[in-house]
Specification:
The chain is built from 7 helices and 7 strands; from the N terminus they run βαβααβββαβααβα. By secondary structure, it is α/β, with parallel strands linked by helices. The strands form 2 sheets. It has a 5-stranded parallel sheet. The protein has a two-stranded antiparallel ribbon with strand order 3-4. Helix 1 packs across helix 7. The protein is globular, with a radius of gyration of 17 Å.
Length: about 200
Amino acid sequence: MIIIGIAGGTGSGKTTVVNKIINSLPQGEVAVLPQDSYYKDSSHIPVEERSKINFDEPAAIEWSLLAKHIRELKEGKTIEMPTYSYLTCTRQPETVTVEPREVVIVEGILVLTDPMMREMMDVKVFVDADADERLIRVIARDCVERGRTPIMVLNRYQDVLKPMHEMYIEPSKRYADLIVPQGGSNVVAIQLLTDYIESRLRKA
């Protein structure tokens, strides 16, 4: 089993890179563990306080559970991955069954910030993109998927996303084995990554 960590700023194109890796490998060979599924439950926090939660700092993630699930997959066990609602800021009762696969991708903005996570990864990837491009994608996504207005998104970008990116996400780039500039549109970098994965699988 190969564990691949894919990090990068919000809106950098991580999901596009993940999908291109999945599509380039035989069907059923990849399991994906999104960092977003492992946000700590906030149901004990009053509803009006939940909007102030900082999702862009490492303390927001239940790393211990994510690490436990990766270990269990490596042991050949099936896991029940949690699900999280951005609308209510709570962990949902439903889980997603994830079976062990040859390739496990751990994807999220902060996955290279945690030393325990980095230790478990065979390949560490940082998807890089221009800040303006990322902001445009974040506005488009948050307005559609998370019920926010453009002004809300811009304020959050200024108050939270930008400072957290500079404090945690950008510095984690130095831990990457491969940096993918231009996000998901970088065909060459993605091809290099998938070629490497395939060569590792052939040796296994």
